[in-house]
Amino acid sequence: MSPAILFLLALGLALFGWLAARARAWGYRKAAPAGRFTSLPAHYGWYVALWIVLPVLGFLFVWSIAAPQLVTASVLASPAGGNLPAFDLQRDMLLGEARNAATGATAGVFHVEARPLIEPFREAIGRMNVIGLVVTLALALAGGTWSFLRLRPDFAARTRVERIVMTMLLLASLVAILTTLGIFASLVFETVRFFGKVSPVDFLFGTHWGPDPMSSAETPDGSRYGAIPLRQPRLAQDPEADARDTRRRADGGLRLLRGAGCSVGGARRGPRFRHRQRLERERTCRRPRHGRDDHPVRVLDGG
User: Fold this and answer.
1) CA 185 to chain CA mean position, Å
2) Are 116 and 93 in contact (CB under 8 A)?
3) Which residues, listed in sequence order, are joined to residue 149 by a DSSP beta bridge?
4) What CA–CA distance (Å, rounded) separates 69 from 238?
5) How far apart are CA 292 and CA 276, in angstroms?
6) Sequence-ordered list of residues with C-beta below 8 angstroms from that of 222, at least 6 positions apart, any chain
7) Is 44 exposed, middle or buried (0-12, 13-18, 19+ CB in 10 A)?
8) What is the rounded CA–CA span in Å between residue 196 and residue 217?
9) How many other C-beta atoms lie within 10 A of the C-beta of residue 64?
């Protein structure tokens, strides 16, 4: 069973615990209307819900890592697993094909040797699913029951919930810090290991970059790890290609300047310029108001 399904099951139980604890808190308030309570009914609900979800989350984190290993160990201990080859790569390939066929990811197997492993995989996966479901329900019920029985009218549920949330935030920040330190330590370790085999002078001032993947990792050729071509990759190109690229860039710059000039000219011909043009056209086309040309001409039908 997928850990996501178990987590959704835990969320459903947490919702039920939240509603039950909230209803109990409202019962305390109705029994003592004049009493002073340190927490709201929602805090009682969150306290029970957190005690249901958090133990299940911890179990699912461990189970998602341990369950595949337990399934593989169970298959290897079966009679069909005893016939597998001793070579790790070939054995892992057969196990992967049988696992995919057992879970329904593939319709079948490519190698005939993996076919007897399908049924042991199905049995082991089904057994682990049952174990995961039982443990999830047991942890959720145990956490919910224990937290629900602790509820009292004077129970400081708000303080407990705030402490739990603060602890979760501290753990999240601690994981982020440890992850960053792990990345930094890995980079430092690999850097020290690299410069232990390749001279820093050859790496920083070498003019040839051509690592050989077929060479020995213990005794690499330092002259093939020059970093100058990485910093200036254009040194290794054809001069004619450089000239063509230079002309292309110059043409692009000229087109950019022409476009900028057109933009400036367009900016100069703004609303004022268009208004002056309109006035000049009206002044040119305007007829005199008093004169012979101003009288309308009557056109008679029939000439």
Assistant:
1) 23
2) no
3) none
4) 55
5) 30
6) 197, 198, 199, 202, 203, 206
7) buried
8) 12
9) 14
Collapse the DSSP code of 153 into the 3-class scheme (helix H, G, I; strand E, B; otherwise coil) and give the result. Answer: coil
Half-sphere exposure of residue 29: CA atoms within 13 angstroms, side-chain side: 13
- Taking the domains of the chain in order of start, what are their residue ranges? 3-155, 156-196, 198-253
pTM > 0.85? no
Residue-level pLDDT, tens digit, the chain, 303 residues: 678 888 899 999 999 999 999 999 888 888 777 667 778 889 999 999 999 999 999 999 999 999 888 988 888 888 877 777 776 777 888 888 888 888 887 877 777 777 888 888 888 888 999 999 999 999 999 999 999 998 888 888 899 999 999 999 999 999 999 999 999 999 999 999 888 888 888 888 888 788 777 777 777 777 778 877 776 655 444 556 666 666 776 776 667 666 555 444 444 455 676 777 777 767 766 555 554 444 444 444 443
